[in-house]
Amino acid sequence: MAEDKILIVDDEESMCQYLAILLRKEGYEVLTVNCGVQALKVIAKQKIDLVMTDIQMPKMDGIQLLKGIKALDPSTTVIIMTAYASEQSAIDAVNLGAFSYLQKHCKNDEIRMVVRNALALRQARTENTELKKKLTRTTKSKKIIGQSPGMRSVFKMVEKIASTSATVLIKGESGTGKELIAQSIHQYSGRVDGPFVAINCGAIPETLLESQLFGHVKGSFTGADRDHDGFCRQACGGTIFLDEIGETPHAIQVKLLRMLQEREIYPVGSSKPVKVDLRVVAATNRDLEQEVAEGNFRIDLFYRLNVIPLNLPALRARIDDIPLLVDHFLRRLCPTEYQGNLSSMISDAALKALHAYDWPGNVRELENIIERASIIRDAEVITVNDLPLDLQVESSSEQIAGQMSVGGHITLDDLEKAHILAVLESTNGARKQTSEILGINASTLYRKLKKYGVQDPDEVQDGLDEDEEGVTKSDLLNAVDSALREADVEASKMEDEPLEVV
Ligand SMILES: Nc1ncnc2c1ncn2[C@@H]1O[C@H](COP(=O)(O)OP(=O)(O)OP(=O)(O)O)[C@@H](O)[C@H]1O
Ligand SMILES: [Mg+2]
Predict the structure, then answer these.
(1) What average pLDDT does this structure show over 332-349?
(2) Which of the two ends of the chain, N or C, has the fewest CB atoms closer than 10 A to its terminal CB?
(3) Atom of ligand 1 nearest to the CA of 328
């Protein structure tokens, strides 16, 4: 490590020389100047770790110099030297940001100690700033939410294995957060300063996948008019995330196996192996053991990948995480409105409906539903009506089941309510069509909806009916749904980039 650089500022040359000799003996690099202006010039040109300045100097005194230094580089540590132990101006200097003051002509040991402490503090501050930077980088990346036992054990495992170079296989249904976990393994590893390169093995045609992964040399196939590194070389020093590994064609599986075993690759068109230093994290939503049993996936590659298996639980298996996730998404989606009180943003009934749902699309689906609800809600609070109809139906059948298990009976009203909801869902919320199917007129439907508190009929009356205003609430919901779907498609397109053929 480079030695610390100290600048001594004193109009008394003998004092400068005395301190310089003392501190050089301690191994520091020492510069000396005789006035504040010269000191500022030095500091403007080079990094100085510590400035020791006399307080009383002609033209620019120590306090003025201190202010100048803090303006130039606030991280520079300053020690003020005074003639008397408790000179008021020295105390003022500390208040202005000087590390400490030293009485001139104090014992050498005291000088050494104050200098050592000042530099140690500076070192700690620098490390702290570095850590903060690292933390900002980590927190800027998406947070992973979960306190259920299933997620806790995933987090524990990530903590344990992140710092190793072991290959990880993340298994989980679609939308459970496999890519998020892969990123956090990278972020908590020693490779954090290296690249994280994600590739969706299922989305790239077989003919392109090999050159995308391993690169190619110029002229190796039509259109290969220059050398291309490929994802594996781009990920050197970092992590490669092989998503949808179960979809990798057989021919590429062999080459991946070679990369995992030998840590080298052959670019397309080259017979020269290239060493790669990367960590492999793979993910799948398929049952890979089953794929192996059916002959679709190489068993040797499976074992190479499955060194550390991580199973991400489905959302339906950890419904206790739902309020936390909703809280997390609402904080992100409505930063100005959300004051940290979940019940001021979403009704109890709506939360219940979220708990009762099956979540085939897991966290991604929940994220989309909350985003959609926060856009279409009329009131501040998200209500059941802002959720997709199948969630509303599920919550009402849940209620029925609940009542049956409690009281042992289902009332006719329960059945009627569930039936109305089911028809409403099938018509996508169109009230006119719903009342026709049910064989009742629109005002009876309105009354019943009001009675069961399923949907806010006033809100429907407020002009969201097709006949009255030309735009139904379901039109609005469909529009939001398709916008969200498009956003997903766009996002997944971006994930798959770069897909260009070079
Ligand atoms: N535990 C979680 N906390 C916060 N957000 C999450 C969590 N799990 C998933 N998400 C969010 O859900 C979405 C889907 O996550 P991700 O892409 O990591 O899932 P996946 O398992 O890779 O899905 P797929 O199998 O479809 O590729 C992302 O927007 C992600 O930020
Ligand atoms: Mg994914």
Answers:
(1) 89
(2) N
(3) 4
